[in-house]
From TrEMBL:
Pfam families xrefs: ABC_tran
UniProt KW Nucleotide-binding keyword: yes
Record key words, sorted: ATP-binding, Nucleotide-binding
Start and end residues of each ABC transporter domain: 14-232
A molecular-function term among this protein's GO annotations: ATP binding
Protein name: ATP-binding cassette domain-containing protein
Domain of life: Bacteria
Amino acid sequence: MNAPFTPPAKVAAFEGVTVQYYERGHIRTALHDVSLTIRGGESVAILGTKGSGKSTFIRLLANLETPMVGRVAHHNMSVSWPVWARTGLIRGMTVRDNIRFTAQLYGRSPPQVIRSVDDFVHLGRNMDVLLGALPSSTMAKVMFATAVALNFDCYPIDGWLVTHDHEFRRKAEAALQDLRSRASLVLATSRTNFVHHFCDVAYVLHQGVLTPYDTIDEAIRTFRAYSASAETA
Ligand SMILES: Nc1ncnc2c1ncn2[C@@H]1O[C@H](COP(=O)(O)OP(=O)(O)OP(=O)(O)O)[C@@H](O)[C@H]1O
């Protein structure tokens, strides 16, 4: 008798990752020997003060950058772009064509994805307007709704959504809560208020060094201590 089929585990792994930038004659270490395993369905908070390396971490996870030392491996884990991105679409194409193009790129059915984005963002006639003619906030909404519709296994989130559109914020937070039940959220943030609500585990990133904690509360306490000393420095 054949053994029952077990689907391969979904994992994103940082293995000894170091990233440095050369800026105005100085080498800046954005990430130093970072190792971390994100398992399918697990939601992770990366807490860090300003300049601690959060955005660099998120860009690596989203495959937008590669490390100079170490590697970021995705095993059966599809990863979205950072969800509040305001770039990545083509301003000279209509919203509809942008969504169609992106859906095709990821091998999904364009009509289904277009319908799902329109249900989320209610674009109406703007669906057939050139993206460049619409406010940049529309780009962020379309990028978010498209990412949700494409059903990735992992969603990198760089900071929390900043918008005056309270209705969109409410829907986006509900969508993230729903995603959390079937995908991994990786939230890099300097704000602690969403961490308990959206994450299972928390790490603190300080000067490029990532440290795990046994509990979210412990991570938050450590992060607050770093924040307080940064404020008094
Ligand atoms: N493209 C770049 N060129 C030069 N230096 C960079 C670049 N990206 C990041 N850095 C440097 O790497 C360090 C970490 O930056 P990063 O943006 O990852 O931190 P962050 O925690 O996201 O900061 P913030 O909270 O201010 O967004 C900083 O010292 C920053 O100046």
